[in-house]
Amino acid sequence: MCMELIKILLVEDDFEDVDYLKEILSEVQFLFKVINVETLEEAMACLDEKETDIILLDLNLPDSRGVDTFTAMNNHAHKKPIIVMSGNLDEDLALKTVNMGAQDYLMKGKIDGHLLTKAIRYAMGRYKAEEELRDTNQKLENAMEELQRTQKKAIQQERLRALGEMTSGIVHDFNNFLASIVGFSDLLLMRSEYLGDVERTRHYLEMINTAGKDSAEVIKRLSSFYRSKDSSGKLGAVDLSAVVEKTIHLTEPKWRDQARDKGVEIEIKKELTETPFVSGNDSELREVLTNLIFNATDAINHKGTITIRTRLDEEDGYALLEVCDTGSGMPEEVQEKCLEPFFSTKGEHGTGLGLSMVFGVIKRHQGDIRIESELHKGTTFVIKLPLYEDTYSCHEKEVKELTSHLRVLVVDSNLGVCNFLEEYFSGEGHMVTLAHDGIQGIEKFDETIHDLVITGQGIPKINGNKLAETIKKIAPQIPVVMLTGFGEVSSLSEKLPTGVDFVLGKPLFINDLHQVLVEIESGMEKNKKLELKC
């Protein structure tokens, strides 16, 4: 039987110990080849030049002592097992090296051939097993990293596919909003007699304004989708019946005009009761109701009714929104799947995203949705929404008015934004200076005649970030408001760019701007009081 030769590097400077170890190894029935060196330096050189299976290491050598010897040897051993040999007084030290990675330790004076052979074989076996385990773990880590890369790629591909699928739905929503914006504005432009009817004109403008704001909300949710962030909007107190009233007006071109073009006559009935405010986002809830009205419209073939109800479920403490139609209804198998993304019964005319969006919004609102339908007998969607915490005493917050006139520098390359801000500030009695790029903004800025700087983020020549930094170096006390159209308001607000005090998104809402101006004026008043005290 051919036995494997085990090559041992013996690092020991005591000749008696060397002779004894060689002698007891010669007596056992294994083949050992022993190479002896006396110093750490020689041991390292030997490891570089000669093949070695295991190292027997004395910790106290002429050029190194104690734990330092093991540390240096272990770092240079190129994954070779080490057995430490120690005197009786150094057992604690030897144990410490085991904790640091030595395979075993032997006490000099207590070693025989059987013990030494057993220690060598076990040390090599353990080390080999540990190496295999390390290799396995490394392979598993590599496999996990590859799996994560693959998953990330698959998720990204799925998100891109879903985004592509969403495009037609987004176009659909925008066309609906644009229908209101263009339609009502066309009426005002074409029929000048309407302008004398203040109530009618105000109503049309409210519809245009609401459609514009809802368009902005769609953009926010779309940008949240591709940035992998939570797409839910801020929740506040919402009057559910008011949402119904406004949505019916906004969707009128679809359920009345377009339906009539197809020979379908639809009537919408309202059964609205005075319910407490719900906790929600009014734009998202309008979009929910819009989708339900459109689905109901598509389900009615010749003539039918859509009934919308609001009421309070006093037993559960929820507000209920019901949309009931007299359309074609749904079989049970369709009811089970209709809330799933991309499920549609409309073929190429449907994205399958409308009802899944409804489901997602309601869940984000901590609500519930139930479907009651029977084929050829219509469908009812019942939505439960939690009440706003302070719903019974919920009132519009009092808007604080500005008490002073501000001197404002507006820097933006978009002429529409500049014109809007100039009209707004001038109409409120403020003084406005306009600039259309960063360099022009710096040239026109004068800390003695300006109280506030409003800048776009992506302005030419010097961007908004650099402009804000420059303004703050010139006049640290002047507040800077940044306008961004890149859909990053929430992330920018969490960590404001250097020199920026407030961030507002485009499209710019007057209420948001006014609130910022109130905060700025409040800060200016505090600074004046501090100056007077000084």
Describe this structure in words.
- There is one protein chain.
- The protein is an alpha/beta fold and 534 residues long.
- Helices cover 50% and strands 19% of the residues.
- It is built from 16 helices and 17 strands.
- The chain has helices spanning 15-26, 40-49, 67-76, 91-100, 113-190, 198-226, 240-250, 252-261, 282-299, 332-337, 354-364, 415-427, 438-444, 464-474, 489-494, 510-533, and strands spanning 5-11, 31-37, 54-58, 82-86, 104-107, 236-238, 265-272, 278-280, 303-313, 318-325, 368-373, 379-386, 407-411, 431-435, 452-456, 480-484, 502-505.
- Strands 2-1-3-4-5 form a five-stranded parallel beta sheet, sandwiched between helices. Strands 7-9-10-12-11 form a five-stranded mixed beta sheet, covered by helices on one side.
- The model is unreliable at 224-232, 347-353, 391-396 and 529-534 (pLDDT under 50).
